[in-house]
Write a structure and sequence with these properties.
Elements lengths: L7 H9 L2 E5 L2 H8 L6 E6 L8 H16 L2 E6 L3 H4 L14 H7 L3 H5 L12 E4 L1 H4 L4 H8 L4 H5 L2 H8 L6 H17 L3 E5 L3 H15 L4 E5 L24 H9 L6 H8 L4 H12 L4 H16 L2 H16 L9 E2 L7 H7 L6 H9 L3 E3 L2 E2 L12 E4 L3 E5 L1
Parallel strand pairs: 2-3, 2-5, 3-4, 5-6, 7-11
Antiparallel strand pairs: 1-6, 8-9, 8-10, 10-11
Helix pairs in contact: 11-12, 13-16, 13-17, 14-16, 16-17
């Protein structure tokens, strides 16, 4: 059994960097972390997509810090709750997933999480599924669980309030979601839960249930969400969401597309760069320093953190070659080509786009080039040897 570290410097840094809020308060959490008591701490993730992303990595990194301090940690897969659908931040009801979809989505999660936490050694992390207990609940159990909350409490959630004001439906199964996630806390009998700040309501529901059912305190630590000063977050819509399946080159390029306002939060949340150095860079940018310089440094550090230093070096050189020197990458993908086919066909066949309609949209937006020149005609016919470029980072040569 691993011994719990009481290093005050490490505990202080753990409670400061990347932390948005601590419940019930910072002082009691700091006190218990310095006491030497071994805590049971968990992070839960619903497998709603086929890969973890950098947003998941922020609380995962905090979980890893506690594991290094010697605490017992759990990485929980919400395979049951994912079939309900977390309503957090959703202006409409989520599309419900089947059990098969959920299990397919999470098949690589443990491997990806192992970049941060260890599932081996003297203090291995546990890897659990909440269907183990939620899938066995009887209707009587659900009613008993629901008796701990009021409709008014659930209605206070901002996304529910907004939908009700706009006349949009709020389904009963969405009300049940916080109860189900909250019961995870009771079933595992944990001491602390870690999660993104957008999960505060759900995590506090678990705190309420644990206190009322077992008379036990649960600490909740919420991590800061990666966003610029206006509140704009990276995401699928913006095309700059970094997944843990992305290559180093993709990660580097996506960071370079982030807003300047995400540079400092990115350093704080996604890298191990010293706090003093981050503050120095922030001060220099306020005094007129070029943000691009620091964004390159951030991109390098992100790739180093989530992939390796070797990949960070390669990604940095690739970006310089392709985007700054306007040279083609050495490992240019190739596509066998026949005369008479159009640029739309080339984009679809090379899988640079998902469909012909996507190809047409990319062309209309000026995002496609043939041999460095922007394509304006959807019926354009590139010849053999032509280099097709979509966006800033994707190329294919017709052979």
């Amino acid at each position: 059994m691993s011994k719990v570290s009481k290093d005050s410097r490490i505990v202080k840094l753990f409670l400061e960097r990347g932390v948005e809020n601590v419940y019930p308060d910072l002082k009691p959490v700091e006190k218990v972390l310095l006491s030497g008591k071994k805590l049971k701490v968990y992070l839960g993730v619903d497998p709603t997509g086929p890969t973890l992303h950098i947003g998941h990595a922020i609380p995962l990194r905090k979980l890893a810090e506690l594991q290094k301090l010697g605490h017992e940690i759990i990485f929980l897969i919400g395979d049951f709750t994912a079939m309900i659908g977390d309503p957090t931040d959703k202006s409409a009801t989520r599309v419900r997933l089947t059990r098969e979809q959920v299990l397919e989505n999470c098949k690589h999660y443990k491997k990806q999480a192992s970049r941060f936490v260890s599932f081996r050694g003297d203090n291995p992390a546990k890897f659990l599924f909440n269907s183990k207990w939620l899938g066995k609940m009887r209707f009587h159990d659900v009613v008993e669980l629901a008796s701990h909350f009021t409709v008014q409490q659930m209605s206070e959630r901002d996304m529910f309030e907004t939908r009700l004001k706009e006349g949009k439906p709020v389904y009963l199964h969405e009300f049940l979601y916080p109860l189900m996630q909250g019961y995870d806390t009771v079933a595992m009998d944990v001491d602390m839960e870690i999660g993104g700040n957008d999960q505060t309501f759900n995590m506090l529901a678990g705190r309420t249930l644990l206190k009322e059912i077992k008379g036990k305190e649960k600490f909740v630590l919420t991590t800061t969400l990666l966003a610029d000063p206006t509140g704009k977050k990276m995401g699928k819509t913006e095309g700059n969401m970094i997944t843990l399946d992305d290559s180093g080159e993709e990660m580097y390029g996506k960071v370079m597309s982030w807003t300047d306002g995400m540079i400092i939060p990115g350093f704080r949340l996604c890298t191990d760069v010293d706090v003093g150095e981050i503050e120095r860079m922030e001060d220099l940018m306020k005094k007129g320093g070029n943000p691009v310089e620091y964004k390159h440094q951030l991109a390098y550090e992100v790739v180093k953190t989530f992939r390796s230093q070797k990949e960070a070096e390669a990604a940095k050189e690739h970006f310089r070659t392709v985007h700054q020197s306007h040279e083609l990458p050495e490992d240019l993908p190739q596509l066998k080509w026949k005369k008479g086919r159009t640029i739309v066909d080339a984009l679809v066949d090379s899988k640079l786009v998902s469909s012909k309609s996507d190809a047409r949209r990319q062309i209309e937006q000026g995002g496609v080039k043939i041999d460095g020149k922007v394509v304006t005609q959807q019926g354009a016919e590139p010849g053999k040897g032509a280099v097709i470029q979509k966006g800033k980072r994707h190329f294919v040569q017709l052979v």
